[in-house]
Specification:
- The chain has 2 domains: 82 residues, Arc Repressor Mutant, subunit A (Orthogonal Bundle), CATH 1.10.10; 76 residues.
- Helix content is 75%, strand content 7%.
- It contains 6 helices and 3 strands, in the order ααβααββαα.
- Strand 2 and strand 3 form a beta hairpin.
- The radius of gyration is 21 Å and the shape is elongated.
- The relative contact order is 0.08.
């Protein structure tokens, strides 16, 4: 049975690595995803062969990104971790986060930037203005893509929950 679990962890690990996560974060997610219970930092350190402090720092980042959840048990100072096991919900959260943290600020701030650069008449500013306008157009398109992805995914989730 451990071989099946190890194979599953490796599959999750490879999936996380393919998304650009570092080795440790990918291992932590794979371990948490395959473990049905809560896991301590010490256990994660032992399972990954990384130092306690490295695991602690990585888990803080993963918790800040809302990938893992931190919990405390009553009367204990230990931190316990788990992970959202709904990959669709996790991906949906990341898509919404990308829109909120990257796309929305660009769409809000770039029109003023474009207007300011448009008033400058140097050759360098014209090239910079072209780059900024292109980026703005990409953000407009990305907003549409992300909105459609969220709408489609939420609709799919509702249908899956009916079954």
């Amino acid at each position: 049975m451990e071989t099946v679990r190890a194979n599953f962890e490796n599959l999750v690990y490879k999936g996380m690595k393919s998304q650009g996560l570092d080795d440790l974060s990918s291992k932590l997610i794979a371990i948490l995803y395959s473990d049905p219970g809560l896991v301590t930092l010490k256990e994660l350190s032992e399972k990954t062969n990384y130092s306690f402090s490295a695991v602690s720092a990585a888990m803080k980042i993963l918790a800040d990104w809302h990938i893992v959840e931190r919990k405390k048990k009553g009367g204990s100072k230990k931190l316990y971790f788990s992970i959202q096991r709904d990959m669709i919900a996790m991906t949906l959260e990341q898509v919404k986060s990308k829109k909120q943290l990257m796309v929305a600020p660009a769409l809000r701030e770039l029109p003023e930037t474009i207007e300011k650069y448009g008033q400058s008449k140097t050759e360098e500013s014209e090239e910079t203005l072209r780059i900024i306008k292109q980026y703005y157009q990409q953000m407009v398109a990305l907003e549409l893509i992300l909105d459609n992805a969220v709408e489609f995914t939420e609709k799919l989730q509702k249908e899956m929950n009916k079954e």
